[in-house]
From TrEMBL:
Name of the protein described by the UniProt record: UvrABC system protein C
Limits of the GIY-YIG domain: 15-93
Source species: Winogradskyella wandonensis
Classification via InterPro entries: GIY-YIG_endonuc (IPR000305), GIY-YIG_endonuc_sf (IPR035901), GIY-YIG_UvrC_Cho (IPR047296), RuvA_2-like (IPR010994), UVR_dom (IPR001943), UVR_dom_sf (IPR036876), UvrABC_protein_C (IPR050066), UvrC (IPR004791)
Domain of life: Bacteria
UniProt record, GO biological process: nucleotide-excision repair; SOS response
Function noted in UniProt: The UvrABC repair system catalyzes the recognition and processing of DNA lesions. UvrC both incises the 5' and 3' sides of the lesion. The N-terminal half is responsible for the 3' incision and the C-terminal half is responsible for the 5' incision.
Gene Ontology annotations for the cellular component aspect, listed alphabetically: cytoplasm; excinuclease repair complex
Lineage summary: Bacteria, Pseudomonadati, Bacteroidota, Flavobacteriia, Flavobacteriales
Protein's UniProt keywords contain Cytoplasm: yes
Subcellular location: Cytoplasm
Start and end residues of each UVR domain: 207-242
SUPFAM superfamilies: C-terminal UvrC-binding domain of UvrB, GIY-YIG endonuclease, RuvA domain 2-like
Name of the encoding gene: uvrC
Xref: NCBIfam families: uvrC
């Protein structure tokens, strides 16, 4: 299909909510999207200059456009989600989920059994869930078993069979775990009142059960049935303990879904918490691999629709960190403070921990992917034209203006490359002049790399503010390297990042991996520089004292320092103590130097 025909298609698109589909020349569906205004959204693909390479490739491949108009935005979201799952277009994020989640089944029987299952059968039974882990299911079933005496047998307890005496009570009855419905020892009405209370517990509502147990306990105590009252009190304690653990916010917050998103260059992590009566009854985190540098808003809208479908959520309100478009059927709340904000923060922490766990696993199983992700993140955060695989950081050290030195540390692929670290003694600068010292060491470093035809870094970091950065730039200018290597300065106080010719500093998120690596570089350069500075000062101190003694060489000085630790102790040592270390001849020379009037 020619470009003109595609232009005509775009011009005839409606200004309505719906879904658009892009096809390539081979008639393969390559992308599905939703929009409030189909024409406006599709036109933006062909009028914008896209920074991201994959988006540019997608636009070049579009040969045909189809669209489906729907009534509302929520319909568009659902349709988009279903089309993506059905056709799996190449440029859409895939919300894969091959897990079968566990449910709790309340069987459609005269005396219903309650058990876990992974299969939902449409036979009139009730299913609660799905739950994100079998551990949660077992905890709930354990709680229910401790509170209510339900049957576990598979008998068909019809009225006729029970009355005919077909079944006999089993061990569970004698253990007190069942009330013997199989022999008609428990009425249907009594059994179903327990099932009704269990339904409320599974929904997260403990209020009715707590009231019922309190009434029972009070009645038994008034009738002097203290042993039975104690048993009910134990059940009450179990339920109150479980409720206190599961209730995390105000119990008035009920039937609410909470969503948060944490994302980096390649992946997004969406956490879902479902609340009922102030209790978290479900938690799940979804990982999404980005395809076209999708925004957090787009990804969250897609994930909310998918997760609510997957877990059959009917909640009429959701809490999210920013406004998203889900149509008129769901109320979208962006909490700013109080209990609602607390629960949103909890969801965000869950997403962060999930991401950290994933990153730790990747670091072990696929270190290259971890490195590639960090490099891509640094490139984006620092607005670089290429990934900073090779970074060098400079720091000056001239404590109290003596022995000025500088250090250069090197990181490759985000990790220290200690064999490439370099020390510099300042040669051309008199006194403590940080700016001139920085200009000298940067010039010397890259003049040598150029002369030896060594690879240059993609990023230089200067420990200092605008002044040190300007000095380093002078050296790059004189070597003809300005513009060929990215260079930034980091000021210690507020962790400000300065760029050449930009008066406004960049502030990175204090928790970002990019800032952590820059801080690690800066700290390593400082440590390495201080270490060299101390060594020079120590050498200087030795030289002024011991090297002035005629006939005493470097090895003698080292032997004496090892034994006595300080020059003062050497000066105060007795002759026989000196002789024990360096022999009679040299001991006499040292002793006479300090004791000759």
């Amino acid at each position: 299909m020619s470009e003109t025909a595609l232009d005509i298609q775009i011009k005839t698109l409606p200004h309505q909510p719906g879904v658009y589909q892009y096809y390539d020349a081979e008639d393969n569906l390559i992308y599905v999207g939703k929009a409030k205004d189909i024409k406006k959204r599709v036109s933006s693909y062909f009028t914008k200059n896209h920074d991201y390479g994959k988006t540019r490739v997608l636009v070049k491949k579009i040969a045909k456009i189809k669209h489906i108009v729907v009534e509302t935005e929520s319909d568009a979201l659902l349709l988009e989600n279903n089309l993506i799952k059905k056709y799996k277009p190449r440029y859409n994020v895939l919300l894969k989920d091959d897990k079968s989640y566990p449910w709790i089944c309340v069987k459609n029987e005269r005396f219903p059994r309650i058990f876990p299952t992974r299969r939902v059968i449409k036979d009139g039974s009730e299913y609660f869930g799905p739950y994100t882990s079998m551990k949660t299911v077992k905890t709930l079933l354990g709680l229910i078993k401790g509170l209510y005496q339900l049957r576990t047998c598979n008998y068909h307890l019809s009225e006729e069979k029970v009355e005919s005496g077909k079944y006999k009570v089993c061990l569970e009855y004698h253990l007190g775990n069942c009330k013997g419905a199989c022999e008609g020892l428990e009425t249907e009405e009594e059994y179903h009142s327990n099932i009704k209370a269990i339904r409320e517990i599974l929904k997260g509502n403990f209020k009715d059960s707590l009231q019922q147990f309190r009434k029972q306990m009070k009645a038994l105590a008034e009738n002097m049935q203290f042993e039975e009252a104690q048993k009910v009190k134990e059940k009450l304690d179990i339920l109150e303990n479980y409720q206190s653990k599961s209730t995390v916010v105000n119990p008035k917050i009920s039937n609410v879904d909470v969503f948060s998103i944490i994302s980096d260059e390649s992946y997004a992590y969406i956490n879902f918490l479902q609340l009922s009566y102030g209790s978290i009854i479900r938690s799940h985190t979804l990982e999404i691999k980005k395809k076209l540098q999708e925004s957090d808003k787009d990804l969250l809208e897609l994930a909310v629709t998918e997760i609510r479908q997957r877990f059959h959520s009917k909640s009429k309100e959701i809490y999210v960190p920013f406004k998203i478009d889900l149509g008129d059927e769901v109320k979208v709340t962006v909490p700013k403070l109080g209990d609602k904000k607390s629960i949103l923060d909890l969801s965000e922490r869950n997403a962060k921990y999930y991401r950290l766990d994933k990153l730790k696993q990747i670091k072990i199983t696929d270190p290259d992917r971890h490195t590639n992700r960090i490099m891509a993140q640094m490139k984006a955060d620092l607005r670089l034209s290429e990934e900073p695989r090779h970074i060098e950081c400079f720091d000056n050290s001239n404590i109290q203006g003596t022995n000025p030195v500088a250090a250069c540390v090197v990181f490759k692929n985000g990790k220290p490359s200690k064999k490439d670290y370099r020390h510099f003694n300042i040669k051309t600068v008199e006194g403590p002049d940080d700016f001139a010292s920085m200009e000298e060491v940067v010039f010397r470093r890259y003049k040598r790399l150029l002369e030896e035809d060594q690879p240059l870094p993609q990023l230089i970091i200067i420990d200092g503010g605008k002044g040190q950065l300007s000095s380093a730039l002078k050296s790059l200018d004189s070597l003809g390297l300005r513009g060929k290597i990215a260079i930034i300065g980091i000021a210690k106080r507020l962790e400000e990042l300065f760029y050449p010719d930009d008066p406004i500093p960049l502030y990175l998120d204090k928790k970002s991996e990019t800032l952590k690596i820059i801080q690690q570089l800066r700290n390593e350069a400082h440590r390495f520089g201080i270490e060299h500075h101390r060594n020079r000062r120590s050498k200087g101190a030795l030289k002024t004292e011991l090297e002035n003694i005629p006939g005493v060489g470097e090895q003698t000085i080292i032997d004496l320092m090892k034994r006595f630790k300080t020059v003062k102790r050497i000066a105060n040592a007795k002759l026989d103590e000196l002789e024990a270390v360096v022999g009679a001849s040299r001991a006499n020379k040292v002793y006479n130097y300090y004791h000759n009037d």
